[in-house]
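Quick review question:
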């Protein structure tokens, strides 16, 4: 592979400045075109239960080793538009004062790669930027994940833009080329799960040593879906990531408490609910899901944390699909615990 200096293409095309660098994927921007048939860079569209403005969602993976893709390759420009941008940028830098030596030689080889069919192993060159095939495919380029905190990982997709004919898969050496699985992982990253506020009984304030029942109704506790899609001429992929609730974990906010069950893990019922609503006539029964506080909260409150674990799967274009790591999301809610007042007569 050629050792090239970074070439700062407009809106960034490759090397140290990939497509979308510093901007991030958008829920609004998509591939488009005009009367010339020249198409702009593709953007990933997010829909369903996702964070606003393409932001990161609130799901935490239970697998500490799993991370969303830091970068990928995606359709960028048609041949004529790519030639216009690339050739202008190369010429501008070649004519810059002091551009010589290794840097100038690298730019010359880059120019030969796209104009004079100069290539290397597994990477063929192009004649006149492949304009004879304009409309029959697109040049693909690297895209950074703006939510990846490690700049080295974020810029690790540093191959030169490459041509992919319409309807064909990218060459196999580009392992980070966008796939339904990558889209599923990005949908996971942007997924927004609902707040986890459990219903408690007693509701306003509970008492020391009195079992507090906790539950979540299926009506407000159901599966969540997020979709990521990319759609440009000759190339369309999408994946839908689905999160289904499987359990609720209760953490009382103090060590002076007991949970029901003892593990604090309340499993989902057959009807999709968790726990059981309190009803009259059950004061001496043990709740299937709940807490018993062993001391008062005094003038304050305890922070009860309710965290739901979600089983996460995905389905994508062409029947692809599989599992992703379970996700969790939880909320704190204030619980007032009072002493039981005894009256002596």
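Suggested answer, residue by residue:
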């Amino acid at each position: 592979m050629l050792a090239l200096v970074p070439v700062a293409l407009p809106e960034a095309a490759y090397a140290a400045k990939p497509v979308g660098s510093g901007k991030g994927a958008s829920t609004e921007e998509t591939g488009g075109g005009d009367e010339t048939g020249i198409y702009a860079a593709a953007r990933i569209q997010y829909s369903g239960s996702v964070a606003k403005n393409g932001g990161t969602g609130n799901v935490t993976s239970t697998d500490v080793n799993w991370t969303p893709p830091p970068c990928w390759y995606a359709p960028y420009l048609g041949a004529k538009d790519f030639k216009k941008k690339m050739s202008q940028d190369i010429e501008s830098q070649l004519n810059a004062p002091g551009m010589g030596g290794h840097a100038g030689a690298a730019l010359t080889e880059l120019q030969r790669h796209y104009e004079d069919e100069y290539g290397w192993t597994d990477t063929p060159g192009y004649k006149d930027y492949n304009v004879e095939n304009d409309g029959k495919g697109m040049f693909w380029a690297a895209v950074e994940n703006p939510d990846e905190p490690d700049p080295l990982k974020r810029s690790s997709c540093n191959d030169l833009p490459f041509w992919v004919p319409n309807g064909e898969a990218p060459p196999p050496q580009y392992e980070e080329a966008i796939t339904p699985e990558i889209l599923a992982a990005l949908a996971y990253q942007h997924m927004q799960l609902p707040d986890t506020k459990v219903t408690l009984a007693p509701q306003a304030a509970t008492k020391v040593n009195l079992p507090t029942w906790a539950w979540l109704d299926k009506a407000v506790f159901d599966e969540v879906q997020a979709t990521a899609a990319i759609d440009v001429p000759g190339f369309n992929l999408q994946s839908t990531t689905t999160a289904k609730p499987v359990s609720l974990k209760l953490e009382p906010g103090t060590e002076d408490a007991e949970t029901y069950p003892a593990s604090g893990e309340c499993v989902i019922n057959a009807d999709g609910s968790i726990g059981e609503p309190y009803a009259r006539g059950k004061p001496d029964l043990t709740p299937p899901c709940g807490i018993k506080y062993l001391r008062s909260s005094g003038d304050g409150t305890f922070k009860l944390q309710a965290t739901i674990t979600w089983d996460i799967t995905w389905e994508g274009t062409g029947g692809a699909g599989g599992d992703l790591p379970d996700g969790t999301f939880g909320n704190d809610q204030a619980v007032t615990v009072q002493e039981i007042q005894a009256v002596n007569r």
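Why it works: The first strand starts at residue 45 and ends at 48. Helices lie at 79-94, 101-115, 151-154, 180-190.
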